[in-house]
Amino acid sequence: MTTTGLGGAALEAFRARFGEAMSTADAVLDAHGRDESGMEAARPGAVLFARTEADIVDALALAREFRVPVVPFAAGSSLEGQLIPPPGALSLDLSGMTRVLEVRPGAFQATVEPGVTYPQLNRAVRAQGLFFPVDPGAEATLGGMASTNASGTAAVRYGTTRENVLALRVALMDGRVLSLGSRARKSSAGYDLRHLFLGAEGTLGVITELTVRLWPLPTARLALRCAFPDVGSAAQAATVVMGASAQPERLELMDARGLRAVNRHLGLTEPEVPTLWIELAGASAGALEDVRALCEELCRDAGALDVRVAQQPEELEALWRARHHAFYALKALYPGEAFLSTDLCVPLDALPEILTFTEDGLQAEGLDASVLGHVGDGNFHVLFHAPPGSADWARIEALYARLVERTLALGGTCSGEHGVGLHKRQFLRAQHGEAVELMREVKTLLDPLNLLNPGKVLPDPA
Amino acid sequence: MTTTGLGGAALEAFRARFGEAMSTADAVLDAHGRDESGMEAARPGAVLFARTEADIVDALALAREFRVPVVPFAAGSSLEGQLIPPPGALSLDLSGMTRVLEVRPGAFQATVEPGVTYPQLNRAVRAQGLFFPVDPGAEATLGGMASTNASGTAAVRYGTTRENVLALRVALMDGRVLSLGSRARKSSAGYDLRHLFLGAEGTLGVITELTVRLWPLPTARLALRCAFPDVGSAAQAATVVMGASAQPERLELMDARGLRAVNRHLGLTEPEVPTLWIELAGASAGALEDVRALCEELCRDAGALDVRVAQQPEELEALWRARHHAFYALKALYPGEAFLSTDLCVPLDALPEILTFTEDGLQAEGLDASVLGHVGDGNFHVLFHAPPGSADWARIEALYARLVERTLALGGTCSGEHGVGLHKRQFLRAQHGEAVELMREVKTLLDPLNLLNPGKVLPDPA
């Protein structure tokens, strides 16, 4: 499939329709040529700052007419190269579509434009005693989170973005705008096409509106910080906690390097040893007491060296801010270096094994990396780092591939929450087998000209 | 699209491949010609009792060769005519595929054949302290529950079947068998094609294997029974409880008629007034005390006349058995009559309004019906009854259509958990608009000859 790209006539047509909402300024093109993956940047042909669903529909119509690839863009926080444009592409910037269109507190739902960030949504609904639980860490937008099926620390209790999107409006490449899903909490009426677009990374359609689930803010919270002698025993404890009736809100693993990084970056004084952070929440402090005692006992039985409780709101806030900044804190620890993060997710019973395999691999290759994990979900990140162009990178990529291979053999996935983008296309066939061909057929059905974020998610045909 | 059906040559080919696993005995054909909808029965051309995935693949190949429609069948407990075969169809009976292939307690998952029922699965995993939470009431199979996205009383806490299926194997009409999803608890690797087949009622492929999520059995449980002066105030109380941090395991509405029915059918002595049944569960009896007090206070503030607590296991079991048998108990109350159940589901804040609208409609039409609901999800059933052929039926169907119309105007769905089958096809376009056309395109992609459960789910082309 050849695409013409944003040449003279096409650019003229876009300018005629959108005027100053179109930009080809160098700084704008640069800002839309990269994400947070650290992958090689590439400028789009132009950027359109969309303001309305009609803008999106018209942009797709012009893209179809002139065969221009389109890359939906908002916060720019994707981690796998999802936003890096192919030559001559239109970067369709939705970050200005920031209206919270409706909050229905009694229905526990809000309808938003795709450029609304999850912190913005949380500020808008907090006074009603509600919150949106998915917290990928960056100032991500809901459109982007829906497109990568982002999750974060609270997915262990509330599910990922996928489980928290009730309804979508999606603009298709052929001009249709479809309403998918329902505002009811559940539905069995017809094929559930929502899920085709959730996690599709903008390759099947452009999300123009989302109705998401909100949850009541728990009245009481506390967090346990349980220090372990090694990452493996911490992971083992996490699986035991998940098997109890504790129903944690969050269950996170921080390794010694990660804690060193957040201590330095945020001025904390956490002990720099492998640690589980377990958050519990409920209707009252009294209701949490038995669960706290249970979790503490389970962790001590599993070898915890020390268990400390945080109950003050400021203390809890500092903890979770630290967790959310761990990625940036680690980057700050190694200035000038390049980074690569895995996003492996395994069935819980395989977590100790894959973490031990990871540590052994790092040691054998003489590599330094930090391990952080949403371990209640079996999801963990190995954050590799090395100077750009260093010989370490070949060993890092080889170990990365071995980690994916072992993860798939254990029944896991190469991506728990970051998506595929450019970097993980190489693993998709090993993970999904023949189902990749059906994915390709669905792509062809919805985007026969291959204009929507082409070259992402799907591997090249065999 | 014309289909040949199971004529002489086709039947001979099926018999040559499957031998005695094929049946055309009258009693067998009769048993495969109906479900629990009460809709007009129709015999299939023959029944194949499949035992393996290879049986299913070969049956689909023969069906393709001879243009035979195929209706997947198992427990026969669908409620919307999903299992009623078109002329000359093969009823593909999967009820003999009852192997629990693997239980991985440490991963909180089990892999089963599609004919395994949810009670069978629960018996298999109970000793490990685990359970599968979706409980539609009938002795439904997991293949059937996945195909209608069934739910039940515990969906308010644990989600529907959709949220509890991690991975599927699906046989397609073109001979492929695909593995979809992953054994990890979450994944962002590629399009999530699982969800196309979940809720597709056997029209897109045949599920040959499922890997489902299991959950730890809570250590402590109790149930509140809160009596209200009317259904509307009970529904209002349900929305208030959902807004608190109570996280109920179950939140059910029983009306006076429903309670009268289960009292008679099961020998209970529940007060015959509109009642909320609220189940709470947690790590210990102590941990539940504050939540119980909170729920009781909220219900009394919302007008509850009486609140009673059940804590003994036998008492709890009797309660939920009663709820699960309510549909049959109501049928037993009106012997010889025909029944029709709605399956409406609205956003929670619309629940009191639609219930009042329902009561007004029943009164205006002079109709008698019972209202039961999974009201924590906004899902409720109006169980109409009248003698077969009675003039009441025209008024019942008209009121049914008005209830759906109002439900859709409130942002709800015509089916919360039963699926579309034959009866609700008429509402699909009003609910989904143009998205119905994309559903049809997906159907054509996966089943171009329209052989898989034809005439179900999708409305006839406009």
UniProtKB/TrEMBL annotation, chains A, B:
The keyword Transit peptide applies. Signal peptide: none annotated. Its EC number is 1.1.2.4. It is an enzyme of class 1 (oxidoreductase). Residues 39-217 form the FAD-binding PCMH-type domain. The keyword Iron-sulfur does not apply. One of its GO terms (biological process) is lactate catabolic process. This is D-lactate dehydrogenase (cytochrome). Its cofactor is FAD. One of its GO terms (molecular function) is D-lactate dehydrogenase (cytochrome) activity. PANTHER family: D-LACTATE DEHYDROGENASE (PTHR11748), D-LACTATE DEHYDROGENASE, MITOCHONDRIAL-RELATED (PTHR11748:SF111). Keywords: FAD, Flavoprotein, Oxidoreductase, Transit peptide.
